[in-house]
Amino acid sequence: MHRFLALCLMGALSAPWAAPARAQANTSAQTHPSTSAMTSLRLHQAAAANDVSAIRQLLKEGAAIDSRDAQGRTALLVATHGNYVDAARALIEAGANVNAKDDMQDSPYLYAGARGLLEILKMALAHGADLRSTNRYGGTALIPACERGHVETVRTLIAAGVDVNHVNRLGWTGLLEAIILSDGGPRYQQIVQLLIEAKADVNLADKDGVTPLAHARQRGYKTIEKMLTAAGAR
Question: Which residue ranges contain the repeat ANK (predicted)?
């Protein structure tokens, strides 16, 4: 008798009309994210809106502070992209990882350095920024800062101890990028001077053997040429 009932039960579960019920249950589970996932999504939204109150409340509710979005970005990196200083401060002070990289190999620290977002950069430096971390081009935060002419960012990164002679995958240092990718104007002259004062190797050539001085001469950057020559460039 018991065996008969068991067989009947097994048959009912395997019957055609049971499949839709199971499928519906599985679909329901897949289309309804967990509470923690929804809370983390809202944290990213709050960061994108620079909503400090919402950030703090969501963290209290258990939002994972370093959870990632579809691009691999943390909420802190989202806030950094918008240069939302208040949101970034709330997240950093709550323990967000300033070195967490997204799918593009950007971290809050690297992105702030590259874009000259000085306030966020200084907070990142004060909360464990990895000075040796590199971007997708193999460059430190200093190299793109030199390229983009962010004088105070360069000054800040040099003072923090970033290697001024680091070479990226293109074969360029910060000094080379401040010449090759610049207009040779006042901002770049200041950056070259900062690098010289920080003991950058003025004779460190690119992968083709072209020196900073040769690049400056090719572009007609007379002021930078004089600065390099005075520092011993050949």
Answer: 43-70, 71-103, 137-169
Sign of CA dihedral 62, 65, 67, 68: positive
**Superfamily of chain region 138-234:** Ankyrin repeat-containing domain (1.25.40.20)
pTM for this entry: 0.85
User: Could you report the per-residue pLDDT of 25-55, keeping only the tens digit for each?
Assistant: 344 334 445 677 888 899 999 999 999 999 9
Handedness of CA 156, 160, 164, 167 (dihedral sign): negative
Helix 118-126 vs helix 151-160: crossing angle, to nearest 10: 10
What is the Cα gyration radius of the chain?
A: 27
Task: Please check the confidence at residue 93 and state whether its pLDDT lies above 80.
Answer: yes
- CATH topology assigned to domain 36-130: 1.25.40
Nearest one of 51, 116, 118 to 78, comparing CA atoms: 51
Per the prediction, the chain carries an average pLDDT of 89
The domains of the chain are located at 36-130, 138-234
